[in-house]
Structure formats: C-alpha cells, structure tokens
C-alpha cells in the first residue's frame, strides 16, 4: 500500500476569496485605526499645549491678584494706623487747647492783680 502525496492544485474557491478579502479588510481597518489614533494624539497634544498656556496665564494673573490683595491689605492697615494716629494728635491738640485756655486765664488774672496793685 503505497500512499501518494496529494498534488498541489491552485484553485480559487469561495473560502480563499473570503479569507483574502477578510485579511485585506482587516489590514485596511488596522491602518485606518492607526491613522485615527495618530490624528487624535496630535489633536490632543495641541489641546494640552493650549491648556498649559492658558493655565500658566491664569497662574500669573492669580499671582498678580494675590500681590494686589497684599498691597491693598497693607494700605488698609496703614490707613487704620494713620486714623488712630490722627485721633491721638486730635486728642493732644484738644488737651493743648484746654491747657492754653487755662494758661491764658491765669495770665489774665496775674495781669489784673498786677494792675490793681499799682498806683
């Protein structure tokens, strides 16, 4: 019993065509998917760069606002200090005015006493 090797025959049948069409469609879909992924990655990279620029601008503005807030706080503190100093000066002036009034009255009494004492 001799077994012979089957001879190779090149035949196009429906299975061969289906497999070749399937492989071709798979490669085309794979290429399309890779192209879409690359396009999406490029778009996302551009969006990330834009967001990074915007965030850095916002951070700079935030620092400027914090600086202005600090300056305004210092100015308000100085205004409060100046107002309390002005109240202290006003109290001192009122006290000096009262002392001057008393001094004037004393001088007037002394002058009146001296003028009565003279012939």
Structural class: mainly alpha
User: Which value, in Å, is the CA radius of gyration?
Assistant: 51 Å
Mean pLDDT: 92
Q: Roughly how many Å apart are the termini?
A: 179 Å
Strand content: under 5%
The H/E string reads H
How many separate helices? 1
Q: Estimate the global geometry from the Cα principal axes.
A: rod-shaped
Question: Could you explain how this protein is built, in words?
Answer:
The chain has 119 residues and is mostly helical. The chain has 1 helix and no strands. The radius of gyration is 51 Å and the shape is rod-shaped.
Short description:
With 119 residues, the chain is an all-alpha fold. It has one helix at 14-117.
Q: What layout of secondary structure does this protein have?
A:
Blueprint: H1 14-117
Keyphrases for this structure?
119 residues; mainly alpha; 87% helix; rod-shaped
